[in-house]
Amino acid sequence: MSDIIHITSVKNRRYDATLNEPLSFFQALAQESGPRLITGRMCLDEQGIPCVEEYPHLPALVAASCLLAPVSGDVVSAVVNDGKLYVTAVLLREDSEAPLIFSGGNVPLHIVAPSLMLQGTDRVEIHTQQLSLLSRTSKWVSETLHQVTRSLFVRATNAHRKVEYTDEVEARHISQRAEHSLAVNARVGSINASAVLKIDGGQVHMG
After folding, report:
1. How many CA atoms lie within 13 Å of 90's alpha carbon, on the beta-carbon side?
2. Most Cβ neighbours (<10 Å): which of 16, 26, 108, 113?
3. Residue whose C-alpha is closest to residue 79's, from 117, 52, 106
4. From CA 45, how far away is CA 97, in angstroms rounded?
């Protein structure tokens, strides 16, 4: 007999594991079984796509409620439904000392609370393209404060600055303008100019 007879069951065709469509097979199996909760370990498939070891052909989608970004090796809780796998929570980190990354994906993350405190025993860093701080009262207390900026603009109705010891300003050009009056008081004072010193006024009183 040289002829080969092929027998195909239409009803069970999508369950045939010999088909070259493993993704469709696992998705169909997940759809037939209905939604269910599973636990497993995160890994990467042959193409580097995150998945769960028990379901390597279902890409792992992070649920909106799972703010802690899972990484490979973490034990997670997930829901399989309609041929898709959603990671809902990270149960155990493979590296207990790895940073905890809270991610909102491509959507904004808002935290609303009557009181919010951020405490870092070592340091706190904020990296962003734009930072806005809106507050009725703001208080900064620091032993040492360094500010580095290309342009600085400060606008206030009243300003008061008190320096206990030395106040130094270094600049190529210094321009001060007072619309009404300018007063400089000191026990000992001096004005030095290596080239030209000019004092101009309607009246000049010396001594």
Report:
1. 21
2. 26
3. 52
4. 25
Q: Phi, psi (5° rounding) for residue 156?
A: -150, 155
Q: How many residues does the chain have?
A: 207
d(CA 181, CA 63): 64
Question: Tokens 């100019």 identify what position?
Answer: 193
pTM (predicted TM-score): 0.53
Strands 55-62 and 84-92: parallel
Here the tokens at position 182 are 């300018």
Burial class (CB in 10 A: 0-12, 13-18, 19+), 57: middle
pLDDT in tens, the chain (207 residues): 445 444 333 344 333 444 444 555 555 555 555 688 899 999 988 888 889 988 888 889 888 888 788 888 999 999 998 888 999 999 998 887 777 777 666 778 788 889 988 888 888 888 889 989 899 998 989 899 999 999 999 999 999 999 999 999 999 999 999 999 999 999 999 999 999 999 888 888 887
Integer Cα distance of 169 and 149 in angstroms: 16
Q: Residue 86: which of 153, 37, 145 has the closest Cα?
A: 37
